[in-house]
Design brief:
The radius of gyration is 20 Å and the shape is elongated. Strand 4 and strand 5 form a beta hairpin. Strands 1, 2, 3, 4, 5, 6, 7, 8 and 9 form a nine-stranded antiparallel β-sheet that branches. It contains five helices and nine strands, in the order βαβββββββααβαα. It is of the alpha+beta class. The longest helix has 15 residues.
Length: 210
């Protein structure tokens, strides 16, 4: 990923927090027929002191067949993003741009089908999204052997993190007045994307998370 110095983020805690918050990722890898990608939720965990990504794909999705622990893959975590108009800046000339935050994670995924790894990974994922509900759904709620059948229909994988890149392009290269104008412009858009980006910028640049 092209990352100018002013937009680079290298703090591991910030990057891991980003991954945990924006955990619906694009997982890309190479196959014998070319590049392939899957859009899946991925969990960040630590094993033996090393950060790893854990996820699963449908067994019918042949991407997992390349996950032998030797071939590199790239997981892209997408944060807030929105169009930025040059009319919002206090200074000119200026041009339109797109501001965003993204984290790229590189590693060599490997299939994990031994023991109860798949079932445990699935339960962990369900607990993440159901845990706060008044009546959370559980895999145990499935009747008979349905849970086992569904578990066999997916393939779990683990990807130790070899390299991670963070890019938060939030207007750091602009003046303070320009950034104020940008935030005012985003607020005036009254769109979910613009609102999310404005909130992220305020938390990151103003509250000092980066």
């Amino acid at each position: 990923m092209y990352v100018p110095g002013s937009f680079a983020v290298s703090d591991e805690k910030i990057l891991e927090s980003f991954i945990e918050r924006y955990d619906f990722a694009t997982l890309t890898s190479a196959s014998s027929t070319g590049l392939v990608a899957s859009h899946i939720p991925i969990m960040l965990r630590h094993s033996a002191g090393k950060a790893v990504l854990i996820g699963h794909v449908a067994r019918a999705n042949n991407q997992w067949r390349q996950f032998d622990g030797s071939a590199e893959a790239l997981a892209i975590f997408h944060g807030p993003h929105a169009y930025v108009s040059p009319t919002w800046y206090a200074t000119s000339p200026a041009v339109p741009t797109w501001n965003y935050a993204a984290v790229h994670v590189y590693g060599k995924p490997r299939v994990r089908e031994e023991g109860d790894f798949t079932a445990a990974a699935l339960q962990d994922l369900v607990a993440r999204y159901e845990g706060a509900r008044a009546k959370p759904w559980r895999t145990e709620d499935l009747a008979g052997d349905l849970c086992e059948k569904l578990t066999k229909a997916i393939v779990a994988f683990e990807m130790p993190i070899d390299r991670i890149e963070g890019k938060f392009k939030l207007g750091q290269n602009r003046s303070q007045d320009d950034r104020v104008g940008m935030l005012q412009g985003l607020d005036a858009e009254k769109s979910p994307d613009a609102d999310a980006l404005a909130e992220f910028i305020r938390k990151t640049l103003i509250e000092g998370d980066v």
